[in-house]
């Protein structure tokens, strides 16, 4: 039953190296039967996630689009041309619709200040390359945590919608009640005259 549940989990792997993308994809599929999408840049990752990067430098240059694919975890290389893994992490965490997706960063360089910066910026893990099967097995709790947050948001939205419907109904009921009271008052006033 756990395998069936894991099969629905979708990992987005981002790396400019074709060999590393293939290795990560194979490890993810071998370790937990995850659905894997691979891209070679941070900007392509943003497209898959449903964010369109416009040619501006401000963070407001990201506009949400229709998200075709539900991604449960992003694993990205740190050093990539154009947009680094850290830049991708920041854009994901700044997005209200994506901020709860767990992000894992990997690098072949063991630079403590880089590792700390990524972890403080919201990364769940920092893997050193070459990534191994044991690393992939550590992703499960992060994916489940991301899934749990998504489910909580759905429940909150449902409750909010239910509350809105209750409030609208209450307002309508009050309007009907006050209208009928006015009518009764008017008709009783007429009866008195």
Automatic annotation (TrEMBL):
Keywords: Cytokinin signaling pathway, Phosphoprotein, Transcription, Transcription regulation, Two-component regulatory system
Positions with biased composition (Basic and acidic residues): 149-158
Phosphoprotein listed as a keyword: yes
SMART domains (UniProt xref): REC (SM00448)
Record flagged with keyword Transcription regulation: yes
Taxonomy, superkingdom: Eukaryota
Modified residues (4-aspartylphosphate): 77
Region (Disordered): 147-169
Biological process (GO), any one: cytokinin-activated signaling pathway
Listed InterPro entries: ARR-like (IPR045279), CheY-like_superfamily (IPR011006), Sig_transdc_resp-reg_receiver (IPR001789)
Domain Response regulatory: 10-144
Purpose of the protein: Functions as a response regulator involved in His-to-Asp phosphorelay signal transduction system. Phosphorylation of the Asp residue in the receiver domain activates the ability of the protein to promote the transcription of target genes. Type-A response regulators seem to act as negative regulators of the cytokinin signaling.
Family (UniProt): Belongs to the ARR family. Type-A subfamily.
Name listed for the protein in its UniProt record: Response regulatory domain-containing protein
Species, as recorded: Ensete ventricosum (Abyssinian banana)
